[in-house]
Amino acid sequence: MSGTVSGRSVYDVAVVGGGNLGLWTAYRLARRSGLRVAVCERGWAGAGATIRSAGVVRQQGGSETAAKLGKLSRELYLKLGERLGLDSGFRDTGYYIVAETERERESFLRLVEVRREAGVENEWVGVEEGRRRFPELNWERFLGATYTPDDGYVHPPVAARNATFAVHLEETVDLFEMCEVREISERAGGYRLRTSRGDVEAERVVDAGGPRGAREVAALVGLDVPVHAVRHEIVTFPKLGAGMRHPFPLFFNVGKGYYVRPEERGALVGMSNALDEADPSGLYQIAFDWDYYERVRPDWEDAFPALRGLPVSRAWAASIDYTPDHLPIIDEPREGFYVLAAGGHGMMWGPALGEKMADLVLDGAARDLPREDIELGRFGREKDPDRVEDMIALPFPKR
Ligand SMILES: Cc1cc2nc3c(=O)[nH]c(=O)nc-3n(C[C@H](O)[C@H](O)[C@H](O)COP(=O)(O)OP(=O)(O)OC[C@H]3O[C@@H](n4cnc5c(N)ncnc54)[C@H](O)[C@@H]3O)c2cc1C
User: Does the keyword Oxidoreductase apply (predicted)?
Assistant: First the structure.
């Protein structure tokens, strides 16, 4: 698509970025208020981190906020599928987060209570019970696991399709692809966005630029937003070893930084190297680190022998977003200018983040979440030693 922004060029809200976060924000704003919304996406909707992801959706967060966001997202994915008359793309396989050390066991046991408080069905599964329920996992390695039966994953291309389709059906939303936002200036009553397809005026702007845009878009209005990008890697295997059940439940070895989920008749493994640092290239595609893959492979083959010695069908490495505490940013740091970022969990939290951003725009506050977990200002303050970071996250860089 080319040419100028068509139709009206004056909006109530301009969303910068048409990934999972920007699309869900536009969709929820339109459904709830009928506001006129423009989504400016410099490429194709959903084609940033969103379609490159593994799509894991877990309600087993590492804090109450994380658990609430996971629960709400799961519900919203399912509802959208129903509304569109299409499959939601969500598969509830059940999900084990395994504890390999005593320290993990203790904190995971505490988290079971936190998640239950947030309304998530969650239990501790001991080794004997684990062997009975999920015999394919090598429980010799573990001290137990937390488990939620209706966690799972969403197939990322379907999630992107549905969110794009939902936005496209809303009469008050215009989705502009190949529309890069290059400058943002304040004007009376709002903002003017200079884009590659002409000017857009809006009373309010939502920065949903993702790993490769949130920081840069905020900088256009002089704000410093600590959203960075780092490599995350995926491999898929076309099938499992002979006699293995399929689909099998997801599992996550947080300490080792990898997780395994079903993919078609085989499996997908996602992994992050704790030694990788923020990637400044600006690219979504990053070189795959085969040395790291070979170093970690024996670990997951030992934990889940169904994958032992299998050929790979696909392998890719891409930019994942992260924030310093792995929690999201949902804030209005300047009047009428909003920042939305997923802290690397934009598939499991994307729909809920869109809903919470709609709360903030329409009602002035994101309902049901503590401000200190989501505001931008938390990063500039002295660290409160009692404040919990989300420990159920990949080993993202510290800076
Ligand atoms: C390999 C991998 C695996 C992952 N697995 C999971 C997972 O299992 N579960 C999970 O929850 N999360 C996962 N993630 C993270 C998840 O994909 C992201 O958190 C999520 O997609 C972020 O959504 P977003 O909308 O913020 O970003 P994006 O999808 O990147 O969308 C941002 C959009 O903004 C656009 N943009 C940027 N700047 C501008 C500009 N100036 N003008 C116009 N448009 C602009 C970009 O083109 C892009 O399309 C994974 C990520 C990767 C890379």
Answer: yes
The ligand 1 atom at the shortest distance from the C-alpha of residue 22 is 25
Ligand 1 mean position, distance from CA 303 (Å): 30
Distances (CA, A) of 296 to 143, 182, 259, 260, 302: 20, 41, 12, 13, 10
β-pairing verdict for 152-154 and 56-57: antiparallel
What is the number of alpha carbons within 13 Å of residue 173 lying toward its C-beta? 26
For residue 167, give the nearest of 364, 361, 15 by alpha carbon.
15
Burial class (CB in 10 A: 0-12, 13-18, 19+), 132: exposed
Residue 378 scores a pLDDT above 70? yes
CA–CA separation, 17 and 160 (whole Å): 13
**Ligand 1 pocket at CB < 6 A:** 16-22, 40-43, 47-50, 52-56, 180-181, 208-213, 217, 232, 234, 270, 318-321, 342, 344-348
CA pair distance 196, 99, nearest whole angstrom? 49
Q: Would you list the DSSP string of 166-227?
A: HHHH-TTEEEESS--EEEEEEETTEEEEEETTEEEEEEEEEE---TTTHHHHHHTTT-----
Distance 139 CA to ligand 1 centre (A): 34
Residue 218 tokens, joined: 């905020």
Q: Using the mean position of ligand 1's atoms as its centre, give its distance from the Cα of residue 9 in Å.
A: 26
Number of separate helices (H) and strands (E) present in the chain = 10, 19
- Name the residue with tokens 């947030």: 118
Nearest to 16 by CA among 212, 166, 154: 212
Structural domains present in the chain: 1-93+151-226+324-399 (3.50.50.60), 94-150+228-322 (3.30.9.10)
User: The tokens 């137990």 sit on which residue?
Assistant: 144
Q: Provide the phi-psi class of 51: left if phi over 0, else alpha when psi is between -120 and 50, else beta.
A: alpha
Residue 175 structure tokens: 């989705």
Question: What pLDDT digit, counting tens, does each position of 267-276 carry?
Answer: 999 999 999 9
- Give 223 Cα–ligand 1 centroid separation in angstroms: 20
Average pLDDT over every residue of 26-47: 97
Three-class SS string for 16-35?
Answer: ECCCHHHHHHHHHHHHHHCC
